[in-house]
Design brief:
Elements (H helix, E strand, L loop, with lengths): L1 H17 L8 H27 L4 H47 L1 H13 L5 H12 L2 H11 L10 H26 L3 H27 L3 H25 L3
Membrane topology: Multi-pass membrane protein
Protein name: Vacuolar iron transporter
InterPro entries: Ccc1_fam
Amino acid sequence: MAENGYADLEKQKLLLQQHEEKHFTSSEIIRDIIIGVSDGLTVPFALAAGLSGANVTSSIILIAGIAEVAAGAISMGLGGYLAAKSEADHYMRELKREQEEIISAPDIEAAECGEILAGYGVEPHEYEPVVNALRRNPQHWLNFMMKFELGLEKPDPMRALQSALTIATSYIIGGLIPLSPYMILPVAKDAVIASVLITILALLIFGFIKGHFTGDQSFKSAIQTAFIGAMASAAAYSIAKVFRV
C-alpha cells in the first residue's frame, strides 16, 4: 500500500515536470506601463494642441511640453510609489492582525479555515486533516488565511520603487512622441499636423497592444484609445482658440 502511494506521488511529480503552463504573470508591470504610456501620449498631446491653437511658436510649445512631461513623470511615478507602498503597508497590518488571531483564538481560525475549504465543495471529513496539518505549521496556516480568507498576496518588497520607475519611464516615452515634431518643425501649424498624425498612429498601436495584453478586442481597444486621445487634443485646441487673446 505504501509502495503504491509512493509510486503515485512519483507519477504526479513526473506529470508536473512534463506539464508547462503558460500564464501571463507580469500583470502589475503591464498595468503600470499602460497607465504611464496612455497618460504620456494623451496629456502632452492635448497640451501641445492647445498651445498650437493659441498660435505660439514651436519652441515655446516644446519647452512647455518638456516641462509638462517632466512634472507629469514625477507626479505619476510618485503616485505609483505611494499606491504600491500603501498596499504593502496594508498587507503588513493585516498580517500582524491575523497572526495575533491565530495565537489568541486558534479554534475560531481553524473553523474559518474549514469554512473556506467547505466553500470549495470539500466535505468536513476531507478538510479536517488539512486543517489539522495547517495548525501544526503556523506559518503555512498564516499564509493560507492571508490568501484565502483576506484575498491578499504578499507584495514584492521592490514593488513600490519598480512601479514608480515603470510609470515615470513609460510617461516620458509616451510624452515625447507628440512633442517630437516640434523638435524638428519650426512652424507650429506644420508641427501640430505632424503631431496629430504621429500621435494618433501611436495611440492606435498602443491601444492594439494594450487590448492584446488585457484580453480585450485589440482593434476595439485601438479605436477607443485613439478616440480618447483625439477628443482630448481637440478639446484643448478648441478651448485655446475660444479664449485666445
